[in-house]
Amino acid sequence: MNRFVGFFNDRLLNGGTTLVIMGCQWLYLWVFPWYHSYVNNPHWGHNYAESIAFLALGLAYFNRRLVSYVLAFIATLMIIPASLELLPHPATAIIGGVMAAAVIVDIVVERKRQYDLGQPANRQLAFWLKKHLPRLSFIMLAHIALIYFLVRLFLGTYETDTVTKVFDGLLFPFVFMLLFEDMPGITDETKAKRVAFFWGMAIMVVSLGILSHQPETQPALIVDIVVTILGIIALTSQRKHQLELSARAKSGQTAG
């Protein structure tokens, strides 16, 4: 139990976990149960590039290698042409898919490397790229909501359903939370990561809850609820353990 609590708190209680889960579930729904909707109305094709962008960025978040950050950034760049339909949806989906697959390859290749592949000789440039490429990618995610509310909804869109408005509305603060995770001046980085985790999970639970009348969404909703509960258990268990240690320390000082 202690190992699980430690692993969950140290490795999974962050925004990267929600990006991976969100990307996987979003992509799964559109590749399998909702594919017929895309066939009947190709405008829905933007969901492929957008979901892949979440997945690629989430994988890069955990890998923390320069090559992965570059690949994920390219994947997130596909959000704009996909959302505005500036390029054919198969093209943006393929480009994003290739980038996501390349991130997975990079994870395997660089698993035990001391230095990043392709790292510039200039240390300041390397530091700048690794620090700001993820931030630029997070900002690109926000363009999903920006384009929806400021362009597509304003000009008239086929997507007027409640779940789209709720998801895009909740996406704005989620992006800010991801940016704040390692923002200079943030005194409690761990707390920022936990807030991003629970907000991201809340986005999925609320969005899939709205769609829960569709049977194909229910397994994903159950997974999200379980992961959220596990996160709560891990967090409360760690805090309980910290309080016990603090009480023992005070007791020891009193006895001394």
Query: What is Rg?
Result: 20 Å
Helix content: over 70%
What is the number of domains?
A: 1
Stretches where pLDDT is under 50 for at least 5 consecutive residues are: none
What does the average pLDDT come to? 91
- Apparent shape: globular
Characterize the largest beta sheet: strand count, sense, and whether it forms a barrel: none
Category by helix and strand content? mainly alpha
What is the N-to-C succession of helices and strands? HHHHHHHHHHH
Work out the helix count.
11
Strand content: under 5%
Query: Strand tally, please?
Result: 0
Alpha-carbon distance between the termini?
A: 32 Å
Indicate the topology:
Blueprint: H1 2-12, H2 15-31, H3 35-40, H4 46-63, H5 66-77, H6 79-83, H7 89-109, H8 123-155, H9 162-180, H10 189-210, H11 218-255
Features:
256 residues, mainly alpha, 11 helices
Structure characterization notes:
It is a single chain. With 256 residues, the protein is mainly α. It has one domain. It is built from 11 helices and no strands. Helix 1 packs across helix 11 (218-255), helix 8 runs antiparallel to helix 9 (162-180) and helix 9 packs antiparallel against helix 10 (189-210). The longest helix is centred in the last third of the chain and has 38 residues, at 218-255. It is globular, with a radius of gyration of 20 Å. The model has no long low-confidence stretch (mean pLDDT 91).
Give a brief outline of the structure.
The protein has eleven helices and no strands. The chain has 256 residues and is mostly helical.
